[in-house]
Amino acid sequence: MNTKIKISFIVSILVLVIFYFALKNIILFEEILFLYLIPYLLFLIPVIIFILVKYAFKKKDTLWAFYLKLFVPSTLFQILLIILVFYFSPSKEIYKKDAVKDLDYMLKTIEDVHPNSYEQISKERFYSDVEKVKNGFPLKMKVEDFYRKVLMLNAEIKDGHTSPDLGYYFNSRYFFYKKIFPYKIKIVNDRIIVIENYSYKCKIPIGSEIIEINGISSNEVINKVSKLISYENEAFRNYYLSMPFSLSIWNNYEDYLIKYIEVNSNNYNTIETNGGLFAKINFIRQQMKKTKSFEFNILRNNIGYIEFNHFNNLDKFSEFLENTFTIIKNKNIDNILIDIRKNDGGNSLLGDELLQYISHKPFKQFERMIFKKSNEAVLSNKISDSDTNKIGTLVEYSNSKEIQLRENPLRFSGNCFLLVGGNTFSSASSFASTFQCYKVGKIIGSETGGLTVCYGDICSYKLPNSGIDMVVSCKKFYNTCGIDNRRGVIPDYIVQNSLEDEQNNFDRVLDYTLNIIKEQSTLNY
After folding, report:
1. 195 in the same domain as 70
2. In sequence order, what are the beta bridge partners of 478?
3. Per-residue pLDDT reduced to its tens digit, 480-502
4. DSSP 8-state symbol, 380
5. Which of 55, 88, 121 is a domain's end point?
6. Percent residues over pLDDT 90 in the chain
7. pLDDT band for position 300 (cuts 50, 70, 90)
8. Which in 97, 150, 278, 437 has the greatest CB count within 10 A?
9. Comparing 284 with 208, which gets the higher pLDDT?
10. Do 322 and 254 sit in the same domain of this protein?
11. Same domain for 267 and 284?
């Protein structure tokens, strides 16, 4: 074995060792090997082609020469990966004095911007909790530990629009460097049910109930994680609990010892697991399934189905509605379903535009609104610079004028059904409230995660030392027909998936709605 081969073997082993120590706290060992071997797989085919071309010209290579041709580009690629790993590494620590300044900045911003941040917790109690957190800070801490404290304090305000921005968690550096909880779960009557596996090897049968995590009962886990979530009602809390990052943050991205009861069995099983690279890829793939903001399909029996996942891009949505309701008219569709169960809000003007196609009377989504004027509202373009002399004041706007229906030959005159759930939040729940108030059609599903009287219209800011992105409500909205009772929109027909439905990937809410249409059609016939 010549000197070049010996050096290449030493470098290969050294690179593998560096890979291991750089990634051992981020991903699983077999995933480290996979990343290490990726360059060899990438360059194997071009190297083989190159060797075959040389062979065609009678220029043979030895096995060692072949290895060296594969080794050089692969090692360079691996070194690049290692550099990227260290680049993706988030800032790890923050000093106590800087963390205290960040909390003071957060507290002042919330008080300056929020119309009533102490509606659900007294100012004295909140100040006391902030001081306890400050006093508990060590001289230096990890940013993720500080992040949890910020989450906990914002959660006490109980406003889903006032919290650290999830963009901080999904920041490429931060997300890459942390393991996730490797299962999608659903909270059913305070029970944790597995409905999807992100892990490729430590799988739990779908429908199984998790009864303990790290020796802590499921009820206590739910209580502990709930203290890190800014939510307004249990429906929205349960939605956020189902996301793997909620449990990941609570568990400090460590391994999980999970005790569960297998579905349709009384057998107790225990599994030690965590989610590395492949689990994160599977999670992202699952999230991307709902990337389309809006989509139209025709179901059996000529039923129109509009899946509406995001209140964004008014121009594209207007075009989509015109095309969709043209098809509905041309095909003589008498029943349409509008599914906003995955819709967590956005621009409420999209709701106004949709109502122009399905409402038969003038409408308004909001009865009145209370607005806190602040410098942050100026920076977020909520008010103009000319209003800066009124900073700190609360202004109430009454909305006595309804939006008139414009001339619209595509206005739908058939039966309209709206599907809602715990993830129906913000502008989506406001739309649902208006839909119900003006009796546009029937609502099927479970209580919305957004309230009929709620805070919203966020101002964004950043904590100066930790760099954590934050959002805070600057308005309080009173939906038309809304009741200030901390409840969401209650459907006309309350329907939820059972555990068996989740296990069998069966959509009971959609099926129930289709059966209503079928029964109505039979009666009309």
Report:
1. no
2. 368, 453
3. 999 999 999 999 999 988 777 87
4. T
5. 88
6. 55
7. confident
8. 150
9. 208
10. no
11. yes
pLDDT score, position 327: 97
CATH number at residue 199: 2.30.42.10
Give the range among 269-273, 392-396, 431-435, 508-512 with minimum mean pLDDT.
392-396
Which contacts of 259-266 are long-range, i.e. CB under 8 A and separated by 24 or more positions?
259/210, 259/211, 259/212, 259/213, 260/194, 260/204, 260/208, 260/209, 260/210, 260/211, 261/208, 261/209, 261/211, 262/205, 262/208, 263/205, 263/206, 263/207, 263/208, 263/209, 263/499, 263/503, 264/207
- Burial (CB count <10 Å: 0-12, 13-18, 19+), residue 98: middle
Residue 128 lies in a domain: no
Number of domains composing the chain: 3
Q: At what angle do helices 63-88 and 3-23 cross, to 10 degrees?
A: 30
Instruction: Say which residue the tokens 């901390």 belong to.
Output: 486
Higher pLDDT, 91 or 209: 209
Contact 338, 419 (CB under 8 A): yes
pLDDT over threshold 70, residue 389: no
Tell whether 421 is covered by a domain: yes
Q: Which H helix or E strand runs over 313?
A: none
CATH number at residue 487: 3.90.226.10
Range of the domain at 446: 294-524
Q: Is the pLDDT of residue 370 over 90?
A: yes
137 lies in some domain: no
The runs of H, that is alpha helices, within 414-456 are: 427-437
